[in-house]
Amino acid sequence: MCEARPLREVLLQRFTRPLGLNHMSYGLPLQQHALAAENAFTGPRLVPPIGYIAKRILGVRFEDVATISNEPGFLSATIPAGNIYASADDACLFFQMLLNGGELNGTRVLEPETIARAVAPIGYLRLDSSLLLPVRFSAGMVSGERLLGLYGLNCAEAYGHLGFINIICWADPARDISVALLNTGKSMAVDGVARLAQLVGAISRHCPRT
C-alpha cells in the first residue's frame, strides 16, 4: 500500500530538494512569508460581463483575489491548483528537467516515458470555459499549437501552464528553451493582456527552432 503523505512533503522530497531548487513549495512556512512577492490588483475595475465571468471562475471578485492571496492563511495553505511558490529560476530549472528527459545536473527524478505521457496532447483544440481561450490539454499541461497558441506561433511541441492571471511557464523542445514569467501586478486590462501576448510571441519568434 502507498503511504499517505502531505502534498507539500511529496513536492519537496520528489522534486525541490533532489533538484537543488531554493523555494519551490506548496505554500510557505511562516518564517518565509516575508519572501513572497505581494500581488496587487492593477488597471481598471472589471465591468460586466467580464467581471461576472471572472467571479464565476475565481469564486470572488477579481479585485479581491490579489488581497486574499497575500493573507497569511493563503500563504501557508496547500492549494493544489493555486499556490506553488517558486522563483523564476526554480520554475525554469523544473521545466529544464522535463526538457532533459527527467534529470537535472546528474539527478534523475522522472523517467522519459513519464514525461512523454504527461505532455502528449489529448483530444481536440477547444474553447476552455475558464481560460476563455482555445487550447488543447495534455494529462498535465496546456499544449502549444502549430499555428497560434498560448506560447506563440509555430509552437506545437511546447507545453506548460498558466498561473494566477499573468503567470505563465513553459518549455519548448523544438527551441530548447524553458521560460518563466512571474508577474505580481494582476490586471485584465486589454493593453496589459496584449503586451503579455506580445512578449510571449517575441520569445518564441526570436528563439529559432533547432
Automatic annotation (TrEMBL):
Keyword Metal-binding carried by entry: no
Enzyme class, UniProt record, top EC level: hydrolase
Biological classification of the source: Bacteria, Pseudomonadati, Pseudomonadota, Gammaproteobacteria, Nevskiales
Pfam families: Beta-lactamase
SUPFAM superfamilies linked to this entry: beta-lactamase/transpeptidase-like
Protein name: Serine hydrolase domain-containing protein
GO molecular function: hydrolase activity
Annotated signal sequence range: none
Organism: Banduia mediterranea
PANTHER family: BETA-LACTAMASE FAMILY PROTEIN (AFU_ORTHOLOGUE AFUA_5G07500) (PTHR43283:SF3), BETA-LACTAMASE-RELATED (PTHR43283)
Keyword hit for Hydrolase: yes
Keywords: Hydrolase
Entry EC no(s): 3.1.1.103
Domain Beta-lactamase-related: 5-193
Coiled-coil boundaries: none
